[in-house]
Amino acid sequence: MPYEPPTHSVERSLRATTGAKIVAGVDEVGRGAWAGPVTVCAAVTGLRRPPEGLTDSKLLTPKRRTALADVLEGWVTAHALGHSSPQEIDELGMTAALRLAATRALEALPVRPDAVILDGKHDYLGDPWKVRTVIKGDQSCVVVAAASVIAKVRRDAMMAELGTEFAEFGFCDNAGYPSPVHRTALEALGPTPHHRLSWSYLDALPRWQHLKRARSAPEALALEAGGQLGFDF
């Protein structure tokens, strides 16, 4: 399906209106998973022409994503990953866990950004970062698209490694997201140490409901996209 390639227009606007010299793009992956961390990538690209085919990671095949991530890691000016563990997600709630992972990624960059382009419509970062939110920024903004691809590929690799230890859960294929294989394993074996125990999938698993944790920070159910026993990736 044809798509418009991302541009630097938002970054140029930020530079012109705020005087920002270093602009980072931030995107996350793993928000709706049942298992594994939520992972955020912060990337800085400057205004150079991006590698051919760059777009939102969800629009790319796994093979193309992996190849592009390898190119991007050498092409970007800087990038860093931040993670929040399943335990931190359970304890803090998703919004705070996203903020923690994003802060870890931004603070791990070798240079501190003057401004941040954040994918989506909600600013989960806040002060002290100067944030511009962009709906579908992972499709329209070069710097966010780069962060999107790197985050997705690196988190998938982490989950595939976990899959060697917990083969029944199919982490190599589903990356911790809902799937029939994942559900079957949960019903038979219960959650692993890498599962989020405050997630609503446990409501449909009577044998394991005693493991469910109450959230310390209540949040809108919309932040649990994919949290029911459905199979949307």
Written description of the protein model:
With 233 residues, the protein is of the alpha/beta class. It has eight helices and five strands. The chain has helices at residues 9-18, 62-75, 86-92, 94-108, 137-140, 142-165, 171-174, 180-189, and strands at residues 23-29, 38-44, 78-84, 115-119, 131-134. Strands 3-2-1-4-5 form a five-stranded mixed β-sheet. Strand 1 (23-29) and strand 2 (38-44) form a beta hairpin. The longest helix is centred in the middle third of the chain and has 24 residues, at 142-165. The protein is globular and about 55 Å long. The relative contact order is 0.20. Mean pLDDT is 90; it is low at 220-233.
Summarize the structure.
It is built from 8 helices and 5 strands; from the N terminus they run H-E-E-H-E-H-H-E-E-H-H-H-H.
- Determine the fraction of residues in helical runs and give it as a percent range: 25-40%
Radius of gyration: 18 Å
What is the strand tally? Answer: 5
Number of helices: 8
Calculate the mean pLDDT score and round it.
Answer: 90
Spatial arrangement of strands, main beta sheet: 3-2-1-4-5
Kindly name the structural category: alpha/beta
> Biggest β-sheet: count, sense, barrel?
5 strands, mixed
List segments where confidence is low: pLDDT < 50 over at least 5 consecutive residues: 220-233
Order of helices and strands: HEEHEHHEEHHHH
* Percent of sequence in beta strands: 5-15%
Shape: globular
The CA-CA distance between the termini, in Å, is 19 Å
